[in-house]
Every structure is written in C-alpha cells, then in structure tokens.
Amino acid sequence: MNHAKAELTIDKQLIIIIASGVLGLLVIWLATYATLTFVPVILSFMLASALEPILAQLEAISIKRTHAIFLVLLVVALVLIALAILWFPRMQIHFNAFLNDFSSANITTLTTSLNRHLDKFTYLKPLESTFKHSLILMGYLTDRSVGVSPTSSLLLLAISFVPFIAFFLLRDGDNLKKSMIRRLPNRFVELTIHAIYNIDQRLREVTIELFFSTTIIVITTSLAFYLLAIPSFLAVSIFVGLVFLIPYFGTAIATILAVLIMAPISGFNYQLIAVIVGLSTTRLIYNLFLMTKIAAKQSPPHPLIVLFFMLVGMFSGGLLGLIIILPLFRVITAFIQPIVWSIRNYRLN
Amino acid sequence: MKASQPKRGNSSNGFLSVESFLNTLPVFKRLATDELREFTRLIHVRWFKKGESVFYAKEPGIGMYFIHEGAIKLYHDESLNGNSPTTLLMRGDFFGELSFLDDQQSRSYTATATEDCCLIALFRPELIRLMDRKPKLGNKIMMILNGLISQQLHQRDEEIRQIRENLSNANFIL
User: For residue B134, which residues of chain A lie inside 8 Å, CB to CB?
Assistant: First the structure.
C-alpha cells in the first residue's frame, strides 16, 4: 500500500466521516444489544480467514475444496467439543468462584483479610486506603462483568453456530463475493476487490496473532497459577493473561490485578513476588521472541486510543469488557481500515 | 499492449462467449480445456459505456483487462484536455498489466472507453488465490502473462531501435 495518496477532497472526507459514523454506530449497537449474534458472526469470519491457508494447502495436494473444508472443520469441531467437555465446566466453576469472591458484596471480607495481612508489613500500612479503594473498583468491575456476560449456555449455543457459518463462508465465499461484485458499478469493482483482499489479509494476521498470543499467555499463566496453588486459577489466568496483552499498559495493569487478587487471599508472600517476577519475565520473553514471529504487520494503536478503549471497555463491560475491547477494536479496524484506504486512493467520480 | 488479433467467431451477432473469446487468443491456447474453464472462473466480465473510465492515472491498481468488444483509449495527462498522446487499443488487446504484476506500481495512464466496451478483467488477489490452491495452473497462467509482457518488451525494444535508426539516419546524435 505504498502508492502516493490521492488528494482527499471534501466529498471523500464526507464519505469517510459518514461511513465511519454509520459503521461505528452499527458496531456499538451490535456489541451492546446483539452480542449473541455479533460474536458468532465475527468469530466465523475470523475462523474462515485463518483456515483459508490450510485449505489452500489441502487443495494444492488435490483434495476437493468441499472435502477439505469438511475435514478441517471437523477437526476444529472435535477440539471445541473436547474443550466443552473437559475445560469449560471447570472454567465455569473457577469463573463463578472468582466473580463471587471479588464482587462488591465481598469487599468487606476482602478488606478485612487484606488488613490482617497488612498488619504484618508495617511499611505497607500507608497503602491500606489505596488497596481498599482499588478493591472497591475491582468489585465494581467484577459486578459489571456479571451484568454484561450472557449466560454461558446461550453463549455456547451461539458459538456452536460458528463452524456452520464458517463452512458456508469457506465453501460459497468466492461465489458470494463474485455475485456481489457483479452488481457493483464499474468504478467500485477494483476498489472493492482491493478492500476485500486487504481485509482478508489483515483479519488473518490479527486472528493468528490473537489466537497464538492468547493461547500461549493463558497456558503459561494458568500453569504458573496452578503451581502456585492460587484459587480459581483458570479464571485468574484468563483475566490476568489477557489484560497482560493490552499494548503499553498490559504488564502494569496485569501486575496490579494479580496483586489485588492475591494479596487478600494469600497475603504478601513469596507467591506474590513469584507472580510479579513471572509476569515481567513472560512479557520480556513474549516481546523478544514471540511478538516478532506472530505479530500482525500492523503497529499497535496509539496509547491514547488504547486508554480510551480501556475506559470504554471497563465502564461498559467491567473486567470482561477490558479484556475484550482491544481485540474487538483490532478486528473492527481490520475491516474498516482497508475500506477507508481504498476510498482515499481511488477516484470515485 | 497489442496482442495478436483474435479471429472473430461464428456466433450470430459476432459476440463470443468469454471462454470462446479467450480460446481465440493465441496466448491462451497453451491452456487445456479444463484449465481454461478454471481460468474463466477467475475473471470478471464488465461492460463500459462510451466515455466511461476504466481507471485513472496514479490510482493503485490490481487488475488487468482484455478487450472483448469495443475500443479503449490510454493517455497520460488529463490536464492536456484531450491533447495528450494516446494509444488506441482494440478487440483482443490488453492493458493494466504493470500494476497487475507489481502491487507497488500505481497506474501510469488513464484508460477510457471510446465506444461501448466489453472487458474481461483479471485481478491479482484472485490469481494469487489460484496460485495457492492450484499452484500448477496458477504458475502456468503466470507464465502466460509473463509471456505477454515479454512480447510487449520485445516490441518496445524494436520500436526504440527503429527510432534510433531513423534518428541516426537523420544525422541526430543520441
């Protein structure tokens, strides 16, 4: 995309502003009121996009496309079923326990417990009020998470549509694109094909990055928290691990979160130090070795944008919103940016 | 951009199906029937009205076009109000191949239909997908397109040689 940028006329600016506004409103509406529709559709697009290179490899060795799609999605479905049977129930218990332990209703218990631990460390006593307020905020964020998350059975039902939607996207995607392009005016054909191609590339990169980084981080933190015998370690590792992936502020927030979760339960002991050292080391290893291998060729958003979305995520969806908002933002930009780029670079008249 | 002229088919109005049209182009004769059918699935047939632009100079480009019916005018500078040097392309010719092959290359000229046209468009992302899914056929098509461009380069070379000769005959020093 190194072409010289075409002049941005008032008409084009207006189109970009209106298009972004309409898309933004649509996304906010979908995210707020239609999570159960929105999530499976986005996930299906991401899955279809990530699986395309595997299908291409299978087709290259003369396996028919429909058979290849069936085969690959069968493997995906089996993995999901295995996770649903072996992992989800356990995770749900941990999740509920975590949300219950850290809800506003339990703040007094947590504060009392924390004060008991603080009594042993007189030099930390001045931080007592800070800890208390942080725990109140944490309780608020936990309550918000419970409020926005749809019941897990409904979410599971919605997610079970993903392999089917992905199947049809993969099987009929080319024909759908072609029939859509056939109906477009000549001037929009190249622009649209260019945008679709770039969206596909971006979405694949972002999906692969999110999948691998999330898996690696969650597995590492789960293992560490399990070894340190931290209660509800699966839920804690998901919250701490995913917060950890927030650009610029991730490590700091994850560390604060880990302290707030662990201090009232186990006090200020070797476990807490181990977690802080572990998180910093993981971040270092992740930045040095993993990020260069899996990061999408897309620079992270500006810190101000990250902060803004963190606020939106936190106050609309609590802890859950905080960990979901930035990946969601990246997926949406993967759709919007190529369209804006195409509109800016092609002459529309 | 001049490819060898295809022979007109025998259909009642002289308009050939896309597959038959491609078959008349010597370069595509190297493709077997099923390969040509697969290639036909990649392409888009577009109709342009007289005076309608296919693309503009300096735009990014990902498509190349074969003229199925009609004529296309290529010119570099719009500001010259029609006085810019033009190239007129007819049935069987193709254009837009440089941006098609090199994604860093923006369009170096504007292409406008001088009469109602039917163009066959091939876009780079779709060829790349074919190369991933059917590498043998994808590479074969790529080689054919390279052959077309190589023919053009030879033609240009020959034209430059001719101009040099004419200039030196007219006692100009280059």
Answer: 59-60
The shares of helix, strand and coil residues in chain B, as percent rounded to the nearest 5, are 45, 20, 35
In the prediction, which pLDDT does A106 show? 82
pLDDT digits (tens, 9 = 90+) for A247-298: 888 888 888 888 888 888 777 777 788 888 888 888 787 777 777 766 656 6
Nearest to B120 by CA among B74, B75, B63: B63
Mutate to test the interface with B, among A180, A197, A339, A340 (most CBs of B within 10 A): A197
Eight-state DSSP code of residue A302: P
**Contact between A60 and B132 using a beta-carbon 8 Å cutoff:** yes
Dihedral sign computed on CA atoms, order B69, B71, B74, B79: negative
Tell me, what amino acid is at A118? L
Distance CA B39, CA B31 (A): 9
CA distance B50 to B53: 9
Architecture of domain B18-127: Sandwich (2.60)
Whether B14 has a pLDDT exceeding 70, the answer reads no
Q: Where do the H-state alpha helices sit in chain A?
A: 10-33, 35-60, 65-86, 88-101, 107-120, 128-148, 152-159, 162-182, 186-227, 233-244, 250-266, 270-285, 291-294, 303-345
Question: Would an 8 Å CB–CB cutoff place B16 in contact with chain A?
Answer: no
Q: What pLDDT digit, counting tens, does each position of A40-72 carry?
A: 888 899 999 999 999 999 999 999 999 999 999
Q: Which residue has the higher pLDDT, A283 or A172?
A: A172
B53: nearest CA partner in chain A: A187
Whether residues B48 and A193 touch (CB distance < 8 A) is answered with no
Q: Where are the domains of chain B?
A: 18-127
